């Protein structure tokens, strides 16, 4: 199953909710959400800095990941950035695909 990294930044509303319910409760909510979407929560960490939390989850597909992202962002308590994660084997397969690219300003040969 594909893995996704969520970078979470809480709004003021989300931070107030976190103060009220705590971190463990928030992780439990995310775990239930992930399971209901047909996936599995791999890890959940709070952080200091630009992002307030980092989450890695397995989800069935990109459409499911998009559905989760839209649902979370629509509430307005957090800004969720969803990043697909690729295995080294997937990168190996990608490097074997022939793709022609011409950078800007460079003539075709």
Tally the helices: 4
| Terminal Cα span | 41 Å
How much helix is in the residues? 40-55%
Classified by CATH, the class is Alpha Beta
Spatial shape: elongated
- Strand content bin: 25-35%
Structural domain tally: 1
Classify the secondary structure makeup into a structural class.
alpha+beta
**Arithmetic mean pLDDT:** 95
**How would you sum up the major sheet?**
4 strands, antiparallel
Radius of gyration: 18 Å
Which oligomeric state applies?
single chain
CATH third-level topology: Alpha-Beta Plaits
Give the low-confidence spans: none
Which series of helices and strands comes N to C? EHHEEHEH
Indicate the CATH architecture: 2-Layer Sandwich
Strand order of the largest sheet: 2-3-1-4
Number of strands: 4
Description:
The chain is built from 4 helices and 4 strands; from the N terminus they run βααββαβα. It is an alpha+beta fold. It has one domain: Alpha-Beta Plaits (2-Layer Sandwich). Strands 2-3-1-4 form a 4-stranded antiparallel sheet. The model has no long low-confidence stretch (mean pLDDT 95).
Blueprint of the fold:
Elements (H helix, E strand, L loop, with lengths): L2 E8 L1 H10 L1 H14 L3 E7 L6 E6 L3 H14 L2 E8 L2 H8 L14
Antiparallel strand pairs: 1-3, 1-4, 2-3
Descriptors:
single chain; about 110 residues; alpha+beta; Alpha-Beta Plaits; 4-stranded antiparallel sheet; 4 helices
Q: Summary?
A:
This protein is an alpha+beta fold and 109 residues long. The protein has a single domain, classed as Alpha-Beta Plaits. 42% of the residues lie in helices and 27% in strands.
């Amino acid at each position: 199953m594909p893995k996704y990294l969520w970078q979470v930044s809480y709004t003021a509303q989300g931070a107030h909710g976190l103060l009220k319910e705590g971190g463990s409760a928030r992780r439990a909510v995310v775990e239930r959400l992930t399971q209901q979407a047909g996936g599995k929560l791999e890890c959940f960490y709070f952080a200091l800095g630009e992002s307030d939390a980092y989450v890695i989850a397995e989800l069935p597909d990109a459409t499911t990941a998009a559905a989760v992202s839209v649902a979370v962002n629509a509430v307005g308590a957090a800004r969720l950035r969803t990043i697909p994660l690729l295995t080294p084997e997937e990168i190996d397969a990608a490097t074997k695909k022939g793709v022609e690219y011409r950078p800007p300003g460079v003539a075709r040969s």
